[in-house]
Amino acid sequence: MSTKVVIYTDGACRGNPGPGGWGAVLRYQDRNKTLRGYDPETTNNRMELTAVIEGLRALKRSCHVELYTDSKYVMQGINEWISNWKSNGWKTSARKPVKNVDLWRQLDQEVARHEVDWNWVRGHTGVEGNELADRLANEAIDAQAPA
User: Are the C-beta atoms of 20 and 33 separated by less than 8 Å?
Assistant: First the structure.
């Protein structure tokens, strides 16, 4: 797994729930690829998860990924909670179903394909990749949402 890719992801939602978008920026050597998508009725957490899933899904082979997100929900979920959820049959410690389980399962599958180094970055602080991912997420909403 010598191919190293840097991915920045972000999700956005107008209302929570409401129309949402996600963005991902993939950087490999001197190349950049941008991705974005829209959901007419979603939550911010779903868009944050979708951005990461789609960023990883876009990689055609196993890579070493340096992934940056401004979502503490994604960071805690993947680094702290997911192993317990899986061993508890996708239930929380309170025995309630895990929210967004469909996306957590997809993320778990995508992560298994790669070696991922997870990094949290504070949003809206001028980190170029994060700012671009945020712009992509909002552009996705703007392009689809009725005026």
Answer: no
Catalytic residue, chosen from 39, 48, 54, 110, is: 48
Enclosing domain of residue 129: 4-144
Q: Strand ranges (DSSP E) for 31-146? A: 31-42, 64-69, 115-120
**How many whole angstroms separate alpha carbon 77 and alpha carbon 71?**
10
Known catalytic membership, residue 108: no
Number of domains in the chain: 1
User: Nearest 5°: phi and psi at 134?
Assistant: -65, -45
pLDDT tens, position by position, 95-140:
999 999 999 999 999 999 999 999 999 998 999 999 999 999 999 9
The string of pLDDT tens digits covering residues 7-29 is 999 999 999 999 999 999 999 99
Question: What CATH number is associated with residue 40?
Answer: 3.30.420.10
Q: How many Å apart are CA 54 and CA 36, to the nearest integer?
A: 9
Answer yes or no: 123 catalytic.
Answer: no
Active site residue 10: yes
Question: Is 23 annotated in the active site?
Answer: no
pLDDT at position 147 is 60
